[in-house]
Amino acid sequence: MAEAGTPRHGPLAGVRVVELAGIGPGPFAAMILADLGADVVRVDRPGGAGLAIDPAYDITNRNKRSVVVDLKSEHGAARVLDLVDRADVLVEGYRPGVAERLGVGPEDCHARNPKLVYGRMTGWGQQGPLAQRAGHDIAYIAPTGTLGMIGNPGEPPAVPANLVGDYAGGSLYLVVGVLAALHHARATGTGQVVDAAIVDGTAHLTSMIHGMLAAGGWQDRRGANLLDGGCPFYGTYETADGQYMAVGALEQQFYDEFVALLGIRDEAPARKDVSRWGELRESVAARFRTRTREEWTAVFEGSDACVAPVLSLREAPAHPHLAARGTFTDHGGITQPAPAPRFSATPTSVRSGPAQPGADTEAVARDWDVPHLAKDDLTKDGH
Fold first, then answer.
1. DSSP state letters, 26-55
2. Which run of H or of E encompasses 330?
């Protein structure tokens, strides 16, 4: 039977997840599990997790429920272990050894629930010379070679927000690992620890590039390759109004359509002549500067030229294709990406807004049958 406030929809309906509050990739991974239908209970700490954002706007905590537990208090670990006893998955993002010191490490949890999938999210991993060092996305992706391949030649590497490390190399790999381990646990009755390190995941993302590098098809420097901006028909170009268009016309048939619609078919140098790529880039750039982004968008509309307007975050939800698909949704007055991917039999949705710290303690205590949790509710006495 579904828990109150958590309708049974999404492929993970019925899966229970305990999330020990943190910031960055851990909460995002838990949000993905929640989006997929899991009943995610976020264990917030008194005073918050340290992220400088109003919890009402932190959509990485949507579709979750929150309880407040002081893990440093006398009964803190016991309350979390009560939840673990009834959970399928636990997600934590502490430095190695911290969960153990708090009494909620893998051994403590597996003693209570041998089937538990224990997901650990860190930057450096559980072992290695840097395991105990602090860090953030940019410092994790730098040693992997990933940061160094992004940007223009002769300029510092471009900073890809925190998408490549925290979320692609971190959260998504944790979710893949948790789901694989959950499948194993249900088949064998044995849980395990998933060590998701951002350095590992980010390095893994470059697998194809390493193959190309070994084959001599990739130069180990920025802006000199097919997919890193070095190629004049795979990159971005400024328009007459200071906006940008993105071009990805790699295959010959798409390139032919691109140069025809751009209006340089008769003057463009041969695309395979790398020695003339600079000349080709100048021709493409000059042509794009003659019209606005809106005008070029209209020119390439409905074509296979692989050209698209570069939109801002606020512009993106109104893009006709994204609007038609419902790629973004509005919930509680916040425009946000809708859950992804999509499922034919178990559709997902934004069921509830960002969980407010401690707001769901009584409901979770009832639904998960952990009565002591409500008795210890720190939100009742102002702590």
1. HHHHHHHHHHTT-EEEEEEPTT--S-SS-G
2. strand 328-331
Catalytic residue among 9, 75, 110, 136: 136
Three-state DSSP class for 258?
Answer: helix
| Alpha helices (H) in the chain, listed in sequence order | 25-35, 76-84, 98-102, 106-112, 137-141, 172-188, 198-205, 207-214, 252-262, 277-288, 293-300, 320-325, 361-367, 371-375
Give the separation between CA 229 and CA 211, rounded to whole angstroms. 19
Beta bridge pairs of residue 119: 91, 194
Rg (CA), the chain: 24
Number of alpha carbons in the 13 Å side-chain half-sphere of residue 259: 19
Distance CA 327, CA 333 (A): 16
Task: Evaluate whether 353 touches 331 at the Cβ level (below 8 Å).
Answer: yes
Tokens 């069921």, residue located: 351
Distance CA 311, CA 314 (A): 8
Tokens at 260, concatenated: 């025809």
Helix-helix angle 172-188:25-35, to 10 degrees: 60
Instruction: Give CA angle at 208 (206, 214), nearest 5°.
Output: 100
pLDDT in tens, 335-354: 999 999 999 999 999 999 99
Query: Span 29-45, mean pLDDT?
Result: 97
How far lies 263's CA from each of 90, 266, 273, 332, in Å?
Answer: 56, 8, 20, 46
- Catalytically annotated residue among 166, 360, 367, 376: 166
Q: How far is CA 96 from CA 73, 338, 354, in A?
A: 20, 33, 28
DSSP annotation of 118 reads E
* Known active-site residue 360: no
Mean pLDDT of all residues in 290-301: 98
* pTM over cut 0.70: yes
Q: Residue 193's closest CA among 117, 276, 99? A: 117
Partners of 192 in beta bridges: 117
Contact between residue 124 and residue 140 where contact means Cβ atoms under 8 Å apart: yes
The amino acid at 39 = D
Q: Give the H or E element holding residue 122.
A: strand 117-122
pLDDT digits (tens, 9 = 90+) for 202-222: 999 999 999 999 999 999 999
- The answer to whether 241 is a known catalytic residue is no
Give the span between the Cα atoms of 27 and 10, in whole angstroms: 19
